[in-house]
Amino acid sequence: MNHDAIVLGIDGGGTRTRALLAGSSGSILGNGLGGPSNYQAVGLECARESIAEAVSSAWHAAGLPPGRADAAFLGLAGVTSGTDRSTIEALARELGMAGHVGVDHDIRTALAGGIPGRAGLALVAGTGSSCYGRTADGRSWRAGGWGHVLDDVGSGYWFGVRGLAAAVRHLDGRAASTVLSRTLLEHLGISDPETILHLMGTNGLSRWEIAALAPLVIDAALAGDDAASNIVRDGAAELALMAWAVAGRLELTEPEVMLTGGLAENGMYRTRVAEALAALMPSARMVRPLLPPAAGAALLALELMNRHADPDVIGRMAQGLQQAG
Known about the structure:
By secondary structure, this protein is of the alpha/beta class. It has 13 helices and ten strands.
């Protein structure tokens, strides 16, 4: 294949890492998958192995021997400071993955792919939560993302904790009846409510296991449970408030808002967030992501070579990804 340049986009989080090789024309060459690469959570060595695995498998999928891309951009969870960016950039250079290397947090690459070439906001509702916005002239701001102890409002973890809190308050007589007392405990295999104390301790449930309770809370809200409905309402309001804060800081009066993350795929929650957003910012518009985060990273890699993706490049990338399934 004859391409002016080959770019590499990497999207990494606490569960898996995705790599995408693309031509500068927007053609999709190959996709790769690796393990977790949030080095704050899994350590630098594990992150290195996961990134190397994803990149190697992308070259293999492209039918090309592992090589050196012209430019690479890595969007990784856990990258929040200049020190983090320097650490991952050094790792990328050790792996010899590209001539030009850029690094930032995974929300930036999600926004770059989801709303390519335009100003907008990425509102994340996954295990954690945050909002990141960027203007056409490159100004950016972020709200939320302060971790599960201080923040993560409206996230899967937040839903899980509040669902369990509603359950125990009902069990000891401090709150009205809720089906969460039954459904959440059954899901966790708990017959004795006192066991919850152990599950919430240091060696108990992980953040991801607690976040996995969120769909049960949303299902209970759909069934009309008051406690669950209040959790959904409050979570949607908190996410909308994040978006409002970022849009205000960046002076975006009619922002496109892309809701992403595991909870974004739940139709009921998406609708509640849209309603809460409309109440705070009637001019905001919720949009579906056009491209996945790894493709957004590839577009940012193009920018490292002073090649800004035009609509034709973006369109070819979208078509290629759709054909690849």
